[in-house]
Amino acid sequence: MKNRERFIKQVEGAVLGSVVGDALGVPAEFMSRREMQKHPVTAMRSGGAHQQPAGTWSDDTSMVLCTMDSLMEHGVDYEDQMQRFSRWLSAAENTAHGEVFDVGITVQKAIHCFDRGRPPVFCGDKAENACGNGSLMRIFPTALYLCGQYSLESLDHHAAEIIHNTSYCTHAHPRCLMACGIFCNVIFALCSGKPLQEAVQRGVSDALAYYRRTDFFRWVYREFTSLQSIHRWREQEVKSSGFVLHTLQAALWCLLTTKSYDQCVLKAVNLGEDTDTTAAVAGALAGLWYGKEQIPPDWRCVTAHYDEIEERARRFAETIVPEKNRPDPTFRKISRISRVLSVYHLILHCPEGISMEGLRLSLDGCTKTFQRDIALLRQAGENIRVRSKGRVYFLDQGTYAHPAPIKNRIQERLVQKLRRLCLVMREIPWENCDKWYRETFPHVSRRTMQRDFAQLNALGYEIRYDRWPDYNPFDEDAIPPKEGRY
Ligand SMILES: [Mg+2]
Questions:
Q1: What is the DSSP string of 352-420?
Q2: CA–CA separation, 267 and 281 (whole Å)
Q3: Which of 135, 220, 303, 407 is the most buried (most CB within 10 A)?
Q4: Pick the CATH number of 334-427 from 2.60.120, 3.40.1190, 1.10.10, 3.30.70
Q5: If you measure from the C-alpha of residue 242 to the centroid of ligand 1, how many angstroms do you get, rounded to a whole number?
């Protein structure tokens, strides 16, 4: 993470922004837009459908706090997240005043399924009428976690899998999964520090490009394309029901059509209907972008457990972004060929095979990058196979294929180089490396040999090709050659 302090501020802003938005929306929940226009919310209120004191937040914040606690203690652990949701529902843990007064039907059903022993990711309802915003409202801590841990700037397969599984626990319809994915990608873009409009547009369009490629989402894909022009919508076009797509649209619209945190959340609340969730989702984005300092002090001091949540948000932020962020920054600087060779080295030296997670922990890159690297190695004739259980990659030694003919000359040269270097990595002897090399590759120039060895030495192979003919071990003044192969 390039700017740890900035990221910590963004996380605090997102958490507190969402909590305050939720609390502003609670007393106005279920009110129509017309009613809101007559009596717009301008400050913290009490009463409303739930008859709660001013500053009381609801299920949205409770589930966000459960998710944050779980991510802090266990990383991504769906079982633990669901256990915490279950304790919230049954024992009122993580509630504003020790009472659960607001819970969605789909969330309630999923938690009951989990309590009866169903695995967490199979608890969510897939039905067409179960497309509420219950997973969208609690997904942003997961997005921040992924951003902190992996310095993500855009959605990849690994991140999408975690985001979708998190949604699956309560909401399993592809529409809910895709809404969560797009929302998280907007968060990744906002965290990267681009200007607001550009970040949101980039976040939406990159996520759409990702989902367009996946058959599973094809039939809901079209519903989301309108998000690309959301900043131009008029208020009448923006709906604010509990339908997941409406909440996502409303939140992005409020963010893009206002210029401060309070304007954004008040606009979200005054759209009416599912006011608390719309404001919680919009509040997370606005809080992340404008920072917690922009939350008006008179709202802060009314919000239930504000100081405690502020402290917890700080702790969450510090936990999810390690002091010395993995992956090691030196990995960022390595060239593509060095990365491909590093992947090959790991596969070569793990006879039991190495999983995608293992590659990600060792090198900087996402699943897709490594899949491309492995495809390139296969093209160079390396027989890398995948064991389906756990998707472990291993080298089937002794069965090397001839590389397929390639039309692109640059690609062809790269593949030839890789083929040569892989063979060197596999078979180079401990002594007389240069002799072995010249015999193995008689048509390759000495300069290329030096370059190849330098390439491998950069990865720690310590191949030395300059002989030391004048070295006399009995001469006390002579400098002995360095350790390594000759
Ligand atoms: Mg609520």
A1: T-EEHHHHHHHSS--HHHHHHHHHHHHHTT--EEEETTTTEEEE-TT--PPPPP-S-HHHHHHHHHHHH
A2: 12
A3: 135
A4: 1.10.10
A5: 10
Enumerate residue ranges in the chain where pLDDT < 70.
1-2, 323-334, 389-390, 398-404, 465-486
Closest by CA to 57, choosing from 21, 93, 30, 89, is 21
The amino acid at residue 304 is: A
Q: What is the Cβ-side half-sphere exposure of residue 287, based on CA atoms within 13 angstroms?
A: 30
Half-sphere exposure of 38 (CA within 13 A, CB side): 4
Only one residue has tokens 């067409």, namely 128
Which residues crowd ion ligand 1, with CB under 5 Å?
58-60, 102, 276
pLDDT at 326: 46
Q: Superfamily for 4-329?
A: ADP-ribosylation/Crystallin J1 (1.10.4080.10)
Ligand 1 midpoint to CA 103 (Å): 7
Q: How far is the CA of 276 from the centre of ligand 1 (A)?
A: 5
User: Can you give the pLDDT at residue 404?
Assistant: 66
Cα–Cα distance between 115 and 345 in angstroms, integer? 45
Pairing mode, strands 392-395 and 384-387: antiparallel
- Return the C-alpha torsion angle 162, 168, 174, 175, nearest 10: -100
